[in-house]
Amino acid sequence: MEEAERTANAFLFAWQSSDYGTMHSLISFSTRDATPLDQFSAIYENAADTMSLTALAIRPAGDCARREHAARRCDGLRRDVHDRLAGGHSPIPNGRLDARIRGSRAYMARRMVAGDVFREMEQGAQLRLLTTTVNRANIYDRSGIVLAMQDDRLIVTVNVVRRSIRDEAGCISTLASAANVEQDVIARRLIPHHLTGSTRSRRSSRPPIPNTRRRSSSSAATFGNRPARRYPNGSLMPHPRQRGLRRSRRRAGDRPRGASRRDSILGRSGIERSWDEVLRGRPRVELVLDMPNGTRLRSLGVRPSQEAQAVWLTIDTGLQARVLEILSTAYAQNADTWGRQSKGAAAIVIDVRTGEILAMVQLPHL
Predict the structure, then answer these.
(1) Residues 248/271, Cβ–Cβ less than 8 Å
(2) Helix, strand or coil, per DSSP, at residue 151
(3) What is the pLDDT of residues 14-28, one digit of tens each?
(4) 92 pLDDT higher than 50
(5) What are the structural domain ranges in the chain?
(6) 82, pLDDT greater than 50
(7) pLDDT score of 329 more than 90
(8) Of 68, 95, 138, 245, which is the most buried if we count CB atoms within 10 A?
(9) How many Å apart are CA 115 and CA 130, to the nearest integer?
(10) DSSP states of 180-224 as a string?
């Protein structure tokens, strides 16, 4: 048992440091012959990519002195994972490495759940990550007027690797047609010293037409889409994208600190950013094991969804509009005097009873 425990320790700590060569050397001879090192490494790397694995932590989990007459089993170590999907430190269900001894041969059953996941992956099974999105919640003023909402349409994006374009003139023509812009707009995005370029088409409720997609693929262009956010009150209410006091049905101590990912156009600044986790919610995520023909072998783990929650500001839209009108009128009437040298102005209206900010205006808008 001591030898099996040492082997299990060595295997797990090698896994923790991504030393696949050492891991491969510790498995049985028959498995090494059936699974070359490059294939063995690819299995673990692909699994880590699918699970968004960022770290492994190895810790003792029990006593290995217990023996059984048929199969003496050691549950001496437990493998915990850190991944971006689970939101930090959380064990995968049944995340355990079992070291077993049968007869005179020791072998390790590497398990994430019941069954040998890696053996099935060697036979062609694939890890798939299934997600169910949650619509981003709205931002309201104190009276329930919508200040920020999710647009039903998507922003269609087109990405081009310039050095991969076979027919640059044809590519520019196709992209200009798809994005409904002049060709020189696309050409400026692909200036000679840039290796890559991208363009963004108008908002659309549907993806580009198939013909455009096919023509663009022949020009080394790929299509994608991103969610869009709409601000009905425009510059009158910059607070969702800038700073400002806010209130919510959550306690003040529950204020999240998260920020959105770089590939999202949402939650980059202001209230959209500081309350991003509340507004965004959390999608349902399930890790499954499927065969190439689509047959579902089993589910390896599920993270339930979390409903997105709306945020209510203390701002009063009507009062905000009135304060903005007063400041704008003052500047217009004094454009030839002090307004010419003025660097800007700001006004804040506070409810002295509660401390809530009812209006907050600055000129010029930043």
Answers:
(1) no
(2) strand
(3) 887 788 888 888 887
(4) no
(5) 2-123, 152-230, 313-363
(6) no
(7) yes
(8) 138
(9) 21
(10) TS-HHHHHHHT-TT-SEEEEEEEEESSPPPHHHHHHHHHTTEEEE
